[in-house]
Structures are given as C-alpha cells and as structure tokens.
Amino acid sequence: MMKYAYYPGCSLKGTAIDYHASTLALAGRLGIELVELEDWVCCGASPAHQRNPILAAGIANLLLSLSSGVSSQIAVLCAACYHNMKKAEEEMRRDGRHRNEVEALTGIRFDPEVRTRHFLDILDKDLGLAALKEKVVRPLEGLRVACYYGCLLSRPPIIAFDDPEVPEIMERVLRAAGAEPVNWTHRLECCGASHAVPLTDAVLRLVNDILISARDAGAEIVSCACPLCQANLDMRQDEIRKKLGVTHNLPVVYFTQLLGIACGATGEDVKIRKGMVSAEPLLRFKNLL
Amino acid sequence: MSKIGVFVCHCGENIARTVDTERVARAASRIRGVAFATDYKYMCSDPGQAKIKKAIADYGLTGVVVAACSPHMHEKTFRKAVEEAGVNPFLCEMANIREHCSWVHEREEATTQKAIELVRLMVEKVKRNTALTPVRVQVTKRALVIGGGVAGIQAALDIADGGHEVVLVEKEPSIGGHMAQLSETFPTLDCSQCILTPKMVDVGSHPRIKLHTYSEVEKVEGFVGNFRVTVRKKARSVDINKCTGCGECQMKCPSKKIPSEFDRGLRNRTAIYIPFPQAVPARPVIDREHCIYFTKGKCKVCQKVCPAGAVDYEQTDEYVEEQVGAIVVATGYDLYTVDKQGPYPEFLGYGEYGYGQDPDILDGLQFERLASASGPTGGKILRPSDGKEPKSIVFLKCIGSRHPSKGIFFCSKTCCMYTAKHTMLYKHKVHDGQAYVFYMDIRSPGKNYDEFVRRAIEEEGAIYLRGRVSRIYRAGDRLIVKGADTLSGAAVEVEADMVVLATAMMPQPGIEKLFQKLGISYDEYKWASEAHPKLRPVECATAGIFLAGAAQGPKDIPEAVAQASGAASKVLVMFSHDEMLREPVVARVNENTCIACWYCLEVCPYKAISKKEIRDRKGNLIKRVAEVNPSICTGCGTCAATCFSNSVDLDGFTDEQLYSEINSLMAVGQDLFAEPDKGEPAEGEARAA
After folding, report:
1. What is the pLDDT of residue B671?
2. Mutate to test the interface with A, among B337, B339, B473, B493 (most CBs of A within 10 A)
3. CB contacts, 8 Å: A164 with chain B
4. Residues B112 and B63 in one domain
5. Cross-chain residue pair A157–B406, CB shorter than 8 Å
6. Residue B219: helix, strand or coil by DSSP?
7. pLDDT-derived band of residue A46, with 50, 70 and 90 as boundaries?
8. pTM of this prediction?
C-alpha cells in the first residue's frame, strides 16, 4: 500500500467536496492510502503572498511540517494549494537566506526531504499508468474529454511536474483509463477566477472562449484539477447564455471523478451530481453510470 | 634572513570597504622576516608601483608580497615592476584579498583577520621562493583556425595575408557558416552572399591556407607555440581531387527527400549533395545515413554517372596531424531550440508557440532562407503550408533571450536588428502586407543601427507592440497570436498568416567537448570564456588560444569580423618572434632519490617526462631516472602528486613552500610575530624592528 500525507485544503472541504470525495474513492480503489494532515490550516491561497510573501511561505512551511511522522510526500489536489506549497518548498530549498527568514518567522525547521506532490503526478510516476490501467473496470471508452490545466497547475516552471507550457500528464492519465482526450487550444488559458467579483464580464468572455474551444475540438466533457476553474467553467454557463447568447451545456468535472468511475466507483461515491451542468446524462449515455 | 616587503592595496573601495587595510599592513610588518609593509589606494597604478620599487631600493628587499586582487589580474604587472627594480620576478607573489576575501565577506573583524592570514601565508611562501628564469621555446609559425564561418574566414585570411600558413578546419562540407544562409544584412541591406562568397573563394584559393572541410579536431596536444593537432577528415565518399563539381551525381541521386540543413528544412536535398551552389569547396559529399547504397546495399547511381570516377564508397575517416603554434577558435553558434525541448535539459523549449507543429511558424533563419534570392522560393515570401503570400505577419522577439523561466538570462543581441530587417524585407516584397513585432525592448546600439530600426517603424510601417506573446493558435486558415501590449495595458490578439520567431543564439551543442580538448574555459551556457572581459577580449586564459566570433557569445557580423581580425593580429604578434618565454613553473626530478617507477611518466598529460640513463665515465649504466622536458611541462603538478618517492617537486610550488604556508595558518600566534602588536602605525607605514 502506498502511503501519502494528504492535504485537502479549504475548497475540498466545501465548494469542491466532490473533488475530495472522488479523490478518496479513487485512492481507495488504487491502493493508495491518504492520511489527512492533522490540524491543517488554509494555504493562504492568493491573498497571503500578496500581503506578505514571507508569511505566505511560513504557512506553507507549517503545512509541510505537519506531514512529519506520516510521510515525506504530501498529496495535494487543489491547483492553488499545490502551487503555493510547491513554490514555497522549492524556494526554501534553493535559497538559504529565504529559508532562514521563514524558519525564524514560524519557528519551524524546514525539512528539505519533504515533497509536495500533485495527485496527478503521483498517479503518473509513483503508481504508473500500467498499474492504473489494471484497476480500470469501466474504461471511459468513447468519452471525448478536454483536459483543462488553467494557469496555476503547471506554471511557473519551478513547480512543474510536466512541461510547464505544454503539459500532457492529464491526457496521459485519462487515456490510460480509456478516455479520448481531444487536442484543443485553450488548455492553459486563464479562466479569470480571481476576477470573478470585480470584473465579471471579462471572466464571462474568458470562460466562453475556453468552452468554445473545447466544444469546437469535439469535447463532450471538460476535466479539470482546480476547484476555482471547475466552479467558474461550470457555474458561468447560464450567465454566458443570458449575456453573450451562447449556449454551452458542457459538463465540467474533476479528473478524479472520471477516474473514480472508471475504477468502479458509483456516481454517488464521486458526487457526480454536484455540478451545475450535470454530467449524469452524458455518462449514462456512455454506459459509465 | 629574508627581507620581505608587503604592499596592501585598497583597490579603491573594493578591498578597503570590507577589510581594514591599514591594520593588515601593520600586522604584516610584525611578521618575522618582513622588513617593510604599507598600504595604498591603487597599488597597480604608477605611483603604487613606484612605492614598491622605492622600497626595494631603500630596504634591499629580497621578496615582495602584494596583497591585492587575483594573480590572474595583476601578477604580471607586479612581477614586471619588481623585475624593473632589479629583483627576480618570481620572488614576487600576490595574496588575493579581493576575490578570496573582501568581495565574498561582510565588513567585520573576521574579514580583516582572514586578510592578515592570507598575507602571512604568502610571506611564508615567498621566504622560500627561489629566483627562476623563464623557459625559452621555439614558436611554430603556423596557425589553426577552427570553424569556417565568417569569423574563421576573416581570421584565416588575415593570418595568411600576414605571411603565415593557416590550417582551417570546418565540420560541414563547405565553409561559409550561418552567414551564407542569410538573405540581406543590416543595417545596409547588402546581400549576404555577395559580400561573403568572394571571401570564401579567397580562402579556397589562398596559397597559404590549407582547408580541411567535413573535418573535426580530434585531439590537441602540446602548448603555446607548439601544438600538435589531430584532425579527423570524415569520409566524404567523394575523391575531392578527381571531382570536378559538375553536379551530375546530385541530379541523378534517387534519394531526394532529405530536409536540407542549409535551407533549414524548407527544401529537400539528395543524399549526395553540395550544400549550396556557392559552396567552397564546390564538391559533393555523401550523407551515409540517408544514402540508399549505404543503408540498403544497392544503388551506386552516383558512381555510374560520375564522369570523373570520383565517387568512392570505400573511403574511411582519415586522421591528419598538424603542427601549429596558435589556435583560433571560431566555432560560432547554433539557434536556440524553439521546439518543445532542445538538447540541453536545463534550458526549456517553446512548446507554447507550436514551432515544428505548424508549418507557418518559422524560426529566424528559416525566414532568411525564404527571403533569400537563392532560397527555396527564389526570394518570394510564401507560406510553407499552402504557398500563399502572407498578408499579415507577426514577429516575436526574444525567443530564447532574457527569459529566466526558460533558464536563459542573456540577450542574444542580434535579434532586434534582424527582426527590423525582416519587417523591411517583408514590406519590400509584400507591399500590401502588414508586419507586427512583439518586443520587450528595442536594443539597437551600433553604427547606423537605431536609424535602421526607426526606418522600419516610421517609413516601412511595421507595427511594434511592447509585450510578449503567451500562445499561438491555429484558427482555420490563420494563426491567432495572443499577447499583451504593455504600453496600453491591453491584451491583444493579432490574426496572422505567418509567424516568425526571432530565435536566439546558443553555442553549438556539444561544443564543450572541443573546449575541453583545447583546455579552455567556458560559462554555464557553454560560451567560451575570454581571458579578461575588457582588456583581453580575444584571448583565452590558455596561452596560444584565441577567440573569434560567436563562439564567445552572441555577435553580429561586424563584431564577429572585428574580433576575428583582432584574434588574427594577436596571432601575428606571437609569430613576430622566433621564440617565446614561458613561465618557469616546471617539475624537477631529484635524481638521487628517483626510484624509476615511471608512474610520473604514465600520468603526465603532456608527455613531458622521459627516461634518462645515468652512466659513469666508462659508459656503464648506473641508474635510470625520470627527466622533465621544461619546454613541454606546463607545471600542472600531476607528477609531483603521484611520485611515490617524493622525488618530484614543482619550481615555485615546492612541498616545502606549501607546507610552510599551511603551517603558518596552524601556528597562529605562536612564534611568527617578532614582537607583540603595539598598534602604532607611522602614516600607514611601519617597519619591523
């Protein structure tokens, strides 16, 4: 049994509860043990590093230290959490002066052995695609998926676990589960999540572009790895119809939900009904539910 | 008893900012054997050197320690000054309290203490220095030039015109380099081939230039003035003397679908080919990887059609040894990989721009070929995908330049100018077309350079947008270029028919292997390093090896040519003497203790050690010992470190000297000071009692 410390982060316990549920459902079926960190806190997401970069790194340092005694590898799902923790970890490893400042602020020693790992990377490198394939009981055959990375998952290069500008890891993993990833243009475009409140119109335009690109490439469903991307792409479709006059009706799910189903989890297990644009009819049509 | 003088330099503020130089001088004056110590703002300046000379005369100094910068910087300067004052130059040493101390530490007590210790150990060494005389060696007045681009061509011509023989080695089948691929050149728009090919012909026909094309430097032995270079002449499969260059073979060759390197894949070539019509030598070569005969064992069409009977499939690589006195490295550059990933894992590619995926996205050299009258389209700007004329074209600058997240920190220097040129060439050929340029900065310092860029913008109507491009998409017939205009603060999208990436320069992949053979240093990108960035820009730190052109770093044609002539003149200066002086730091064998185990002979990288027989008067062999040839020995010390019987020592770096340096650090405060520190300097100068 592979064992990892698991940091869900705030989103996965709230708006992205389906990401959390599907991750646990999938991990259990793959023989991956995820031990949730005790007493974890918010990663600081976007406000912390804008306010005080040392403090932001300090939060990450605290989270990294919580894994001690469980595993030196921390599995993270949310793209923003991963981004923050990995960046802090790499910067502390590379810059001794910065590390000293962070350690002085938090009173916690940084363990250079600790590694923040995105769950996609764990599936690809630690578990391996061959082992994943073996666990697939309901191949996602004929499911044309647009794999969406957004901006945070692979960039900047310091945090990347695949080519930062042309990643293929999500396609690789979903292909192993039998899906047919489409080749599309807007895989790494920003969905505008952080401008959702002040500049809603701009966000609608960005999301619309992304969904059009996915649709034109023949995608039936969008797979993503970030709670904010998922919420934005999923929830804006109604508003886009009203304001821009474009109808989409494209389900947006997490890669863990698709993999979970492929590995035998039920729709209930992966909370497939949580999305605003339901993926249920499509998955039923493909005989996956 | 030694009488050593210690001279502590402030180096302006460089040393004095962090090291208490006055105190260093005062402490030095109390070291046993030091007769005089002082400090001064610029020891290397004329008044500084005068201080040293005066002290030598006044105090009868037997040795000098200058506590200042690295010996790389000024050892020669100070040794010369000492020599002028009548003391053997090898009795002068430098204590490096700048690079090894003041530059790397904060201003604190320990820094000054470290400077004092560095001085003390050097004093202990100088006490044991002996007077040495430079070794005289003959100079072979023949030069090797590696690389036949414009820099190598210029260097070879200058040296040959100066009256000396030159061996020019080029790894491709023809000389000419990247310049032969260019269409027109900035800032005058004269045709690149028109100005280069006459020079290529001059090289080919020069009585004093021996040309090895399709050849590589295999091995380099020897030292300045006396290099022995082994050149591997790769099997051309064509007898270059029989061949008349008629071209019949490449007309008939059935293997026609090989992307031409010269046209950067925009046109195909045959397996037996002359890379371009103006090639020197205008002789074909068989590309054995693609030749049907070599891959499948059948064909031989070229041999059948050759009227001169020059095709020779049995040819093998040939090794030629050349004796030369100086080497000019002019290996040039390659393009930065704009594909997804290049040959160096530490530098990222540009997958986001889709080069190599979409035929209408070109690199800078491909555009040169498109615009060239001898190129695949005869000089018409046409899209590779469908042969249509692009009405909207976007140029992206800084692809592989100044991009820290890709691992590249340097500026490739030429792209601003060649992009301005590209927009003009485009406008001259597609009158109703529009060129857009995404740029970070426009760097155009150079004679008539900025005028040229202004002309591109103001007269020829190129639209310059300040910002980078995030991504390029194909949308039907067109390419969508998404970028930012940071001056207006807006995101912009340009619909383009063609995109050109202003590709940066990188060293030739694997060039470090050649640099290692030559024993010259290079930086983290593998650009060759010059001996001094300002004052010795065309010389390597390794004596007798010079740099020309982009092997040293990105350069345009005028700069490469200027540097090549500079390197050539350095070679000619060297060749104006019949013999030269070499540092006498060489190994010496103690014949009394040598046990003739020959380990030194085996480890010597320079083959400087031989077996010597000692005989009595009657000619009876008494013993065999190792002997060092001082004109070959470079003083690397490998033999001294290997010797089992401790019989080899290095002049100037004897075991005794090194141990006394170390001892001086171990024995701090014991016996070294003649008297306790009373802390009373006299005007910054102090004398030992």
Report:
1. 46
2. B473
3. 348, 405
4. yes
5. yes
6. strand
7. confident
8. 0.83
The DSSP call for residue B7 is E
Contact flag B473-A164 (C-beta cutoff 8 Å): no
Strand partners for A75: A6, A117
Rounded distance between C-alpha atoms, residue A157 and residue B279, angstroms = 43
pLDDT of residue B72: 87
Which chain A residues are closer than 8 Å to B357 by Cβ?
none
- Which residues of chain B, if any, have pLDDT below 70? 667-689
In degrees and rounded to multiples of 5, residue B221 shows phi and psi of -125, 170
CATH of residue B374 = 3.50.50.60
Average pLDDT, chain A: 95
Tell me, what DSSP letter sits at residue B213? -
Name the residue among A157, A166, A185 with its Cβ closest to that of B340.
A166
- Output the pLDDT for position B146: 98
User: What is the DSSP code (8-state) at residue A161?
Assistant: S
CATH number for the domain spanning B598: value is: 3.30.70.20
- Pairing mode, if any, of strands A180-181 and A252-254? unpaired
CA of A150 to nearest chain B CA: how many angstroms apart? 13
- At B201 the pLDDT is 97
Range of the domain at B191: 142-331+507-575
Task: Tell me the residue type at B555.
Answer: K
pLDDT in tens, A119-173: 999 999 999 999 999 999 999 999 999 999 999 999 998 999 999 999 999 999 9
Give the residue from B358, B396, B470, B474 with the most A CB atoms within 10 Å of its CB, the best one to mutate.
Answer: B470
Domains of chain A: 2-120 (1.20.1050.140), 138-285 (3.40.50.11810)
B106 contacts in chain A (CB < 8 Å): none
Per-residue model confidence as pLDDT tens digits over A81-134: 999 999 999 999 999 999 999 999 999 999 999 999 999 999 999 999 999 999
State the smallest CA–CA distance between residue B480 and chain A in angstroms. Answer: 10
In a domain? residue B255: yes
Tokens representing residue B218 in the block: 């295999």
By a Cβ cutoff of 8 Å, what residues of chain A touch chain B? 156-157, 163-166, 185, 188-189
| Residue A279 φ/ψ, nearest 5 degrees | -90, -10
Express each pLDDT in B275-315 by its tens digit: 999 999 999 999 999 999 999 999 999 999 999 999 999 99
pLDDT value of residue B542: 86
Contact across the interface for A166 and B405, Cβ inside 8 Å: no
| pLDDT at res. B668 | 56
Measured in angstroms, the CA of A289 and the nearest CA of chain B are apart by: 36
Does the residue B581 lie in any domain?
no
Is there a single domain that holds both residue B165 and residue B292? yes
Overall domain count for chain B: 4
pLDDT, mean of residues A262-270: 96
Residues B422 and B514 in one domain: no
Shared domain for B306 and B158, answered yes or no, is: yes
Domain-embedded: residue B582: no
Q: How far apart are CA B234 and CA B238, in angstroms?
A: 11
Kindly list the residues from chain B whose CB atom is less than 8 angstroms away from the CB atom of residue A163. 340-341, 348, 351
Q: Are B15 and B102 in contact (CB under 8 A)?
A: yes
CA angle B328, B331, B336 (to 5 degrees): 155
Nearest to A165 among B352, B473, B474 (CB): B352
Task: Say if B436 falls within a structural domain.
Answer: yes
> Residues, chain A, total?
289
Q: Which pairs with CB-CB distance under 8 Å and at least 24 residues apart come from B680-683?
A: B681/B22, B681/B25, B681/B26
Which pLDDT belongs to residue B687? Answer: 46
Q: Please answer whether residues B478 and B495 qualify as being in contact, where contact means their C-beta atoms are separated by less than 8 angstroms.
A: yes
- DSSP secondary-structure letter at B662? H
CA–CA distance, A225 with A230 (Å, rounded to integer): 8
